[in-house]
Specification:
Two copies of one chain form a homodimer. Chain A is mainly α and about 170 residues long. Chain A is about 60% helix and about 10% strand. Chain A is built from seven helices and three strands. In chain A, strand 2 and strand 3 form a beta hairpin. Chain A is globular, with a radius of gyration of 21 Å. At the A-B interface, helix 2, helix 3, helix 6 and helix 7 of A face helix 2, helix 3, helix 6 and helix 7 of B. The first copy, chain A, binds a DNA duplex (30 and 30 nucleotides) through helix 4 and helix 5.
Chain lengths: ~170, ~170
DNA sequence: TACGGTTCTTTCAACTTTGAAACATTGGAG
DNA sequence: CTCCAATGTTTCAAAGTTGAAAGAACCGTA
């Protein structure tokens, strides 16, 4: 076992000797592994940190934050539930629960859609907007502290390209 | 409002005119925003995709996967709960629940630590190890498909450096 | 050896997330 | 017009996650 970690390339030598019918995958090589280990750590640690800060400061998860942000950027601060789910990258079910709770807090109201009775609009209230405005500065400060203060201009550009490339393979 | 999205720099113009006592943060500029929007999307979408694949294939979340992986790489496939929590980047509480469930499935057993009666060891069973071996190939294929097949060697190296840099600011 | 602060783990209750199923509505094909 | 599949949303029950608090054992100091 020369390597270790998340993807367990260290098993590659062992598994070629096994007699199973599964096709042997192409394991990660040393350079890929050297990138994957820190990247996957970042992938789980950074959202956790952003969530922690938002929750501590304002009792809001990043999921909620992006729902509020999406609404605030929409015309009339209004979006259909489905669109909101898509633009905040969350499941319909999760959205329903979250919006229900936010509605109780007075941040959002639901309105029936006049042209499609299946559909509901979610509308950001003034109170919801004010809440978002109150959160935003410390959130941006956190993003700056954890990300942009640590990268030079060139790396910011590299990050942009990499993220855009990888996003193509999702959604 | 010229820009939109997660960090809501579009509010910067509005907020300078407000009369609140909060200090105006340094908002993200265009280049930072152009990197942040896809990056934050990736940050939530990629783990979701990795989780989805692991869950679908083997009924296991990425959290569980990294616990199993950490155990499999440890001497005697054994780690104290605390060490396991640290190396799989999870909270003690979450670890307890997860290990309890895995123990029911026969993947792990808990053993008292002989030298410190507060501490418990988690030990990966043969069955747990076999499960991990069964998962690994399709997981590495997924990682390859979503990440490494899309980046050239230079980008892999850039990603490594960026991830390492940002990790310094966490933990 | 007894105190007290610290460490390691679990428990607890509240909350969130999940996917499947239910419900209501729509729009197109026959 | 009447199906029927597709769409948009909610409900449901099961599972997972959270942070705080509890419990147990450790270790240094007196």
């Amino acid at each position: 076992m020369r390597r270790s970690g998340d993807v367990r390339t260290e098993e590659s030598e062992a598994s070629v000797t096994r007699t199973e019918s599964t096709v042997e995958p192409r394991w990660l090589d040393d350079e890929e592994m050297a990138a994957w280990l820190p990247f996957v750590q970042l992938l789980y640690l950074l959202p956790q940190e952003l969530d922690r800060q938002l929750r501590e400061e304002m009792g809001v998860s990043h999921t909620w934050y992006s729902m509020l942000a999406a609404l605030s950027a929409a015309p009339d601060r209004t979006l259909a539930m489905g669109e909101l789910a898509r633009s905040s990258m969350t499941s319909p079910s999760r959205l329903t629960h979250a919006i229900a709770t936010m509605e109780k807090r007075g941040w959002v109201v639901r309105r029936p859609c006049p042209t499609d009775k299946r559909s509901q609009f979610a509308v950001l209230t003034d109170e919801g907007f004010a809440t978002l405005e109150a959160i935003a500065p410390s959130h941006v400060a956190e993003v700056r502290r954890t990300v942009f203060d640590r990268l030079d201009r060139e790396q910011v550009d590299q990050l942009r390209r990499i993220a855009l490339t990888l996003l193509e393979g999702l959604g």
